[in-house]
Design a protein that fits this description.
heterodimer; A: 306 residues; mainly alpha; 2 strands; globular; B: mainly alpha; MetI-like fold; 79% helix
């Protein structure tokens, strides 16, 4: 049987390359990358009563004269108004604390699943993923009924005699923490599980044989070996939570402002598109470092695999 | 050694309770007669009846399902192409950038994706006159942009684990590459394509933030209706809707689980 002539094979290879790389590249370039350039452009414009509601950045005045107007008003506003700065800082704080909480709860869970008997593992893992397939919005909504002052949690605590008067949890920062940990816990557990299930248990046995106590063995062997999983899970939680909108909007209150909600308000309520764009640019700038870290890590994990 | 697992298992149980108690409470109170979600007055299915009479919600659900289906199909095509590129063409110029573009939508906050796409659509309409107005098309494009990245992750994992000897055998017998891909590779990665499709479908059906930015007047999706009714306060209709969603998802997962087990036993 004759093999295809080499130049035809080469030709098909080139076509395959063009289709497989070119089409997704083009799509993402047009609908993911290009929009950021436009956001940057509009963050330097001024709001206007027009359609669309912002001023043009450049215009041809007459032959050969191009007028470019760069307006730093939006960034100045953000820098001078405490509201925006505290929202940005608060978002980072919420994301950081929630990542830590997810890790504290998620690590032992992932470890327990990874060391569970084989037949249980798939079911346990399935139960972690299952809530992800139901509506995120509705799952956050569920917490309103639980946390509000006449809600189920307060009823339970009063019935148990632990408290006399209802606690105010809904519309506070605590409610945001609960909602975020609840929604993002699977994103922490899955990469940790993937990492821990590949862990070579004979290393722990060797440590035990050499007289190492379990806690010490965990700190010296398991924890360092699962660092890649910890970092991957942390980034999957941290990055999206910084810009989260639904949870602070439904569960948070006036004193727990986050940048995602602020951006939404500037855009939809105040119709200030340029200011919303400036907030988006600042949010992006905050997320570049963690994102690059995540990307590096991913390439290292893939590079390590044979 | 046995005793040491106790704290771990307690924490595991707590974690699962944390994940499932809110969903269980939603389901229980969907059968409550009272409008108050937290006071139990008696068993009733009236919220389900009301749900199916809520024409606005049904219209929105139908729009969301159509968008989700078109989105999932496009996302599977684009995500599979991207996965092919990453697994089959190991070295090409701009690979790092390609990977970056494909990972970023997974973690990028929704408000940024939504705002930036809206501004793009407005600018495009201004300069080339397309898209003319916003709605089905713009929401679908926005959803494809982030869900193709998820599909690429799923398909890529499957492609890189795949045994390539069958493909090589077909090549040796003179089959053209495209034919090999269509008749050998695609059936082998079909489970990943299916789970990618379902994942993209769910992601689209679930999105509130991005759709709110790129939707126009007259294109209200299901999450937007849920959101506006939730903002007005708790509503047992939403509980009923949640119960239906959970039932459908659980059923699908059980069926998939049985099918997978059958498939494994058949092999």
């Amino acid at each position: 049987m004759p093999a295809p002539p080499p130049n035809r094979a080469k030709h098909t290879h080139r076509t395959s390359r063009l289709v497989n790389i070119g089409i997704p590249y083009l799509w993402l370039g047009l609908f993911f990358l290009l929009p950021f350039a436009i956001v940057l452009q509009i963050s330097l414009a001024e709001p206007a009563l027009a359609q669309p509601p912002y001023t043009a950045l450049w215009q041809w005045v007459d032959e050969g004269l191009l007028r470019i107007e760069i307006n730093l008003r939006n960034f100045m506003m953000v820098a001078e108004d405490d509201l925006y700065l505290s929202a940005l800082l608060n978002s980072l704080q919420v994301a950081f604390i929630c990542t830590l909480l997810c890790l504290l709860l998620g690590y032992p869970m992932a470890y327990a699943i990874a060391t569970a008997p084989e037949r249980w593992r798939i079911i346990l893992l399935m139960l972690i993923v299952l809530p992800f397939w139901t509506s995120f919005l509705i799952r956050v909504y569920a917490w309103i009924g639980i946390l509000k002052s006449k809600g189920l949690l307060n009823d339970l605590l009063i019935w148990l005699g632990l408290i006399d008067t209802p606690l105010a949890i809904l519309h506070t920062q605590t409610a945001i923490y609960i909602g975020v940990v609840y929604s993002y816990l699977p994103f922490m557990i899955l990469p940790l599980y993937a990492n821990l299930s590949r862990l070579d248990m004979s290393l722990l046995e060797a440590a035990a044989d050499l007289g190492c106590r379990p806690m010490r063995a965990f700190l010296r062997v398991t924890l360092p070996l699962s660092m890649a999983g910890i970092l991957a899970g942390s980034m999957l939680v941290f990055i999206p939570v910084v810009g989260e909108f639904v949870i602070p909007d439904l569960l948070g209150g006036p004193e727990s402002l986050m940048v995602g909600k602020l951006l939404w308000t500037e855009f939809f309520s105040n119709k200030d598109w340029p200011l919303a764009s400036a907030l988006a640019i600042l949010l992006l700038a905050l997320l570049v470092v963690p994102f690059v870290m995540m990307q590096r890590l991913q390439q290292r994990i893939e590079g390590g695999r044979p | 050694m046995r005793r040491r697992r106790w704290p771990l298992l307690t924490l595991l149980a707590f974690g699962y309770a944390f994940l499932y108690v809110p969903i269980l409470l939603l389901i229980i109170y969907s059968f409550n007669e009272s409008r108050l979600v937290t006071v139990w007055t008696g068993f009733s299915t009236k919220w389900y009846v009301e749900l199916f009479r809520n024409q606005q919600l049904l219209d929105a659900a139908w729009l969301s399902v159509r968008i989700a289906a078109v989105n999932a199909t496009l996302a599977v095509v684009l995500g599979t192409l991207a996965a092919n590129a990453l697994v089959r063409h190991r070295h090409f110029r701009g690979r790092t950038g390609f990977e970056l573009l494909l990972t970023a939508p997974l973690v990028m906050p929704d408000v940024i994706i939504g705002l930036s796409l809206l501004l793009l659509f407005v600018a495009m309409q201004h300069t080339i006159g397309w898209p003319d107005g916003r709605g089905f098309t713009t929401i679908t494009i926005a959803h494809v942009t982030f869900s193709m990245a998820y599909v690429a992750v799923v398909v890529r994992a499957r492609l890189s684990q795949m045994d390539r000897s069958l493909e090589e055998a077909a090549m040796d017998l003179g089959a053209r590459p495209l034919r090999v891909y269509l008749t050998i590779t695609l059936p082998l990665i079909a489970p990943a394509l299916l789970s990618g499709w379902l994942l993209a479908f769910t992601l689209s059906l679930d999105d509130l933030v991005i759709a709110s930015f790129v939707a126009g007047p007259g294109s209200t999706t299901l999450p937007m209706v849920i959101y506006s009714s939730v903002r007005m306060g708790v509503s047992p209709q939403i509980n009923a809707l949640a119960t239906i969603i959970v039932a459908v998802v659980t059923l699908a997962v059980v069926i998939a689980g049985i099918a997978m087990r059958r498939g494994r036993q058949a092999r």
